[in-house]
Amino acid sequence: MAREGLVEDMEEELDTIITLIGNEVAFEGYEFIFKGEATECKSCRLRNACLNLHEGSRYRLVALRDAPVHECPLHEGGVRAVEVVEAPFLVAIESRKAFRGSKVVYTPMRCGEEECPMYELCHPTGLEEGDKCTITRVVGNPPEGCPKGFSLKLVELER
Q: How many other β-carbons are positioned within 10 Å of the β-carbon of residue 34?
């Protein structure tokens, strides 16, 4: 049993990415979606350390590194080295597909109701149609019913 915990710890460690993030938002648990390169990044000497994430992916900061803060034209207070992991997406999917451990190809709900309060859960930012994902947890029922009558469950998806 202790060996299983060790293996899980090692797997989590392998998924950790060291990157730079704004010092003002550098705290454990902070989540963000990486938007990609800004114009100011093109000539920066730290460019490779900042731009080593997948554009459109959601990340969670899991640890601060013991390293100096560097100046950055985009981040007031500079940037610092941190460890991040790709965070799961909270998504509303059809109930019949909501099984923990299932491998799915993400397909957004085809409802056309962009004003729906559930729209962001059915079409989460950073997740693209065709992304191969695993359902890591079935959270339960969504906070509201679907106006189109779809039977939905909230799940956590990881790419």
A: 20
End-to-end CA distance of the chain: 27
For residue 100, give both structure tokens: 């923990």
C-alpha span between 86 and 131 (Å, rounded): 14
Which single residue is written with the structure tokens 């409802």?
111
pTM: 0.71
pLDDT in tens, 99-149: 999 999 999 988 888 889 999 999 998 888 999 999 999 999 999 889 889
SS3 content of the chain, % helix, strand, coil (to 5): 20, 30, 50
Give 47 or 11, the one with higher predicted confidence.
47
Average pLDDT over residues 140-159: 92
Q: Which residue has the tokens 């390169």?
A: 37
pLDDT of 159: 83
Q: What is the dihedral of CA 123, 89, 130, 132, to 10 degrees?
A: -160
Residue 39: both structure tokens together: 């114009």
Residue 71 in tokens: 């100046």
Q: Helices then strands (H, E): number in the chain?
A: 3, 8
Q: What are the boundaries of each domain within the chain?
A: 2-86, 89-158
